[in-house]
From TrEMBL:
Keywords: ATP-binding, Coiled coil, Helicase, Hydrolase, Nucleotide-binding, Nucleus, rRNA processing
SMART domains: DEXDc, DSHCT, HELICc
Protein name as it appears in the record: Superkiller viralicidic activity 2-like 2
Composition bias type Acidic residues, residue spans: 1-14
Amino acid sequence: MSDDALFDVFDQEEPTPVVDIPKNVPVIEQPTKVKESDENGESMSTDKRTWEEEEEDPSDLNSKRTRTEVVNEANAGKFFENVPRMQIHTVETIESCLHEVVLPPNFEYVPLKPAMGPPAKEYRFNLDPFQREAITCLQNNQSVLVSAHTSAGKTVVAEYAVAMALRDKQRVIYTTPIKALSNQKYRELHEEFKDVGLMTGDVTLNPSASCLIMTTEILRSMLYRGSEITREVAWVIFDEIHYLRDKERGVIWEETIILLPDNVHYVFLSATIPNAKQFAEWISFLHNQPCHVVYTDVRPVPLHHYIYPAGADGLHLVVDETGKFREDNFSSAMATLRDVGDAAKGDKRGRRGGFKAETNVFKIVKMIMERNLAPVIVFSFSKKDCETYACATAKLDFNSEEEKRLVEEVFNNAIDLLSDEDKKLPQINTVLPLLKKGVGIHHSGLLPIIKETIEILFGEGLIKALFATETFSMGLNMPARTVLFTTPRKFDGKELRWITSGEYIQMSGRAGRRGKDERGIVVLIIDERMSPTTAKEIVKGKADPLNSAFKLTYNMVLNLLRVEGINPEFMLERSFYQFQHFSSIPALYDKLKTCEQQYEAIKIDNEEEVARYYKLKKKLELVQDQMSVMMNEPKYLLPFLQPGRLVTVRCNDLNFDWCVVLNFQRKPGEKPIYIVDILAHLTLESALQKLTAEIQPCSYVERGEMKAIPIQHTLIRDISAVRVYLPDDLRPKEARQGVLKCVQDLKRQYPGGLPLLDPVKDMGIKSSEMISCVKQYVVLQTRINEHPLTNNFQLKYIYEQYERKANIENQVNEAKNELKKAQSLLQIGDLKRYKRVLRRLGYCNSADVIDLKGRVACEIDTGDELVTTELLFNGVFNDLTVSQACALLSCFVFQEKANEMPKLPPELSGPLRTLQETARRVARVSIESKIDMVEERYVDGFKPFMMEVIKAWVDGQSFANICKMTTIFEGSIVRCIRRLEELLRQMCCAAKAIGNSELEAKFTEGTQKIKRDIVFAASLYL
C-alpha cells in the first residue's frame, strides 16, 4: 500500500478493520506523566521588600534562623523519641463486645472494681454488655472510648458520666460537632438533670451550670483564652469523635484534646472505627492515663440489605441479618440489571439508561408502604433531588385524618414564634401540604425552624417517608424501619464518586428501631454504570478508619505563639497525625530489615562487571525512550504504520515483543491520539480474556496465541524496517498463527535483532536532539557489544538476578526514607513557611513574639484571619457604612456554590475589588514563602454571591424580599447570616484590641441589625 493510499484510508470516518476487535475491550492507555515542580523556582515579588531584607535567605530557607526556631527544632520530635510501647490488656467480657485497656508505660494494670453503693443513674431497661462495660470504666474514674453502630445506645454512657459528675459535685463538658445537635442534647439533658447550660456562639444559657453543652469550637476557644471553666472540668464528653477525620474541621478536635489538662477524664462516643485501639493509645500517651476501648459491632436491630436494579420489578437480598453475603442473590441482581439495560437500549422510544430514578424511588416507597415497612428515610445526595422525589411521592397519602390534624397542630405551634410576614414565606406554605400527607424533607437548604419541626414530627411517627441528605445520619438519634438510597453516587466537592462503605454503614445504621422492629431494611438502587465489584465493596465493606486530618492554621499558630509555656511545635509533635506516623515505625523497621536481608542473600559472581553491564543497558533504555518519544510524533510515525509493519510495544512494566500493525484511526479529542490495532503474541490464558488490562505478553519461544488488541500510538517503542504479509481474513485462529510463524522465521533469520528504521535517514527526524540521541545510542550499543558479558551463555540469568538485587536496593532506600520521615517531626516545614508569612506581613517578629496585628488575628477564626486583619489595618472598614461592611464580610462566611456571578452596584464592587487585591497580596507573599497555593483559587474562595442580599437585610428588608434576590436556598441564607453574626462579634473584639471605638460601634450596630426575625428565631429545642 502506498503512503497516499494509506492516508486515504485514514481520512475516512470509520476505517474498515482488518480483524474484528470486541467493542467492549478498552484501549491500553498511556500513563500520564506529571511533571514535578521545582521548589526552588523563581519567586514573584509582591512589594518593595526583597528576600535579602528578610531574616531568611531565599537560596537557603534554613539559614539565618532565629534562636527560638533553633531551640524549638532541636526539641521537636523529642516527645516521641525512645518512648516504650503502650501496654494493652484485654478485659474478659461476654462475646458481644470487646473491651481493651491501653496503659501508659510504667503503669501497672489493675482490674476494674465493681461499683460500691448506689449507681449515679438508674435505667428502666437492661443495659447492653458494652454499656455495662463502659459504665464500669466511668465508675473507676477512667477514660473510655465507646465505638458502636448508630442507634446502638452510646448516649446512655454519656448520660451516666453526666449523672456521676453532678453527683460528685464535679464539672462536666459535653461537646458536639454541630449546633443543632448541641440544642437537642441540651433539651434532653436539661429535662433530666436541670443543672445544665448551653454555649454555641449563637446562644448562651446558664453558663455557670455544672454541665455545659457546647460545640468543640467553643471549647477550643476557651482553652486558648485560659477560661476559668476549663480549670474546673473533671470530665469531657466528645460526641461523634469520628468527626476528627473531617478535612475542614477535624483539626479542631485534635487541638482541643491536646490542650486539655492531664487531670481531665474523657468519654469518647464514636461510630464503629477499626482503629479504635490506636486512638486510645494516643490518648493514653498524650495525657498519661489509662484509656479503655469498648467496641461492639453488634446491632441492637439486625439489618437486611437489598439491592434494587434500576428498572427491575423486585428486590434482591444480598446481606442477611447474620451479616452473610448472598453471592447467588447478588449475581442474580446484576444479571437482572444487565437484562434491563439491554432492554432499555433496544427501546424504540429511545429511553436511555432504562427507567428514570424518580420512577424507581416512587415504586419502592409505594411498595414499602404497602408492606407496612414505614417509616422510611430516603437518602439522596442533592438538595434539589430530595425535593423532587418528595413532590413526586406526595401523590400518595400516608397519614390518617387524625394524624393530619396533629401535624397541622404541631406545625402551627412551631411557626407561632414567627412574625405574620415570615409566616407567609413560600417554603413555609409549600411544606405543610407535604407534611400532612406524611412526607418530609430534611436538608441544609431548609429554614432551621422547618428542619426542627420535621425532626419532631418524624420522631413522633407523623412522617412516614423522609427525604434527606446524609447530614440527617450525623448525630441525630432518629431511626426508621427502612432506609433507601436513591443513588450510590455523591459529589464530594471535587468529583462525583461512589459512596464509601463507611458512609454506607453510617447512613444504613438509621434502619431498625430498637424495641419496635425485629429487623431493619436497607435498599440500595444501582444502575448499569456500577460494576459488581464496586457494589459488593459498598454493601459488604468495612467502616472507615479514624485517620487524622491535622493541618496547621494561622489562627492556631498565632494562638500558640501568644500562650506562654507552649509553642506550635508543641501542637505538631502531640498531634494524632504525628502519633499515627510514629506508630508505624516498628513496621517500617521490620520492612527495612527484611529488605536488607533479601539484598544480602543475593550473591553474584563478578558483581562489578555485571553492575557495569546493567548500567550500560539502563542508559541505553533511557536513550531509546527519548528517541521513542520523538519518533512517536504522528507526522513522523503515521506514514510507516502500514499493515504488516513489525513494531515493539511497552505498556507500564509489560514489554511486547514484535507485534504486527493491522491499521490505525484517530481518537476523538483535542490532543491527537491514534489507536493502532496490532497482532500481539499473548499467553494462552490471557488470550482468552476480554479485558485488555488483563492480557500478558508471551515470548516467541513459548507457546502462545496471536490476538488483535488496540493500543495508543505513544506505546510503540521500536519500528522495524521489515513488514510481513497479512492474509485477507484474520478471524480464523489458523490465519493468525500463520502470521506468528512468519515472525518466528524472521527472528531466526536475524539472530542479532530485526533491522530498525533509522530515525534520521528513513523517518526524516533531523532535529539536533534526535541526532544527539542516535550518536549516544551507537556509542552505548558498541560498548555493550564489546562488553565481556555479552557472549556469556548465562547472561540472561545473571542480568535478571542483578536486576532483582538492584530493585531490592531501591526498596531499601525507600524504606530508609520512610523511616526517616516517620522519625522526624511532620509538617515542621509547613510551620516554618507559615511563620515566614506571619513575619513578612508583620504579625510577629523574628523572635516569634506576636505583634498587635497578630493579637488581632487571634480573635478571628470564622473567616480568613489574615485577609480580615489586613483589611482592618488598612482602614478599609473605616470608610464603609454598616451595611457595606456587613456585605463585604459575607464574602468570608459564604462557602456554597451559586449559578452565576452577581452584577454588583459600585458601592459593593469597590470594596470587593479591595478585598480581592488584599487577598492577592497575601497569596503572593504565601507563594514567595514557598507555600503550595494557587493565587486565583485562593482569591476565588472569597465568594461575593451574598453581598447584595446581606446589604438588603442590614438595611431592613424582609426575609421574603431578600429570598427573591437570589436562587440560593433559604436555609443557606440563614446559615450565612448566622455565621456573619459570629464573625461580626469577633470583629468587635478585634476593633477593641486596636482601640478603635468607632469601628467597634460599627460592627456592634451590624450585629444588632442582622439579629432579627426568622433568621434568629429561637430553636424549638430550647
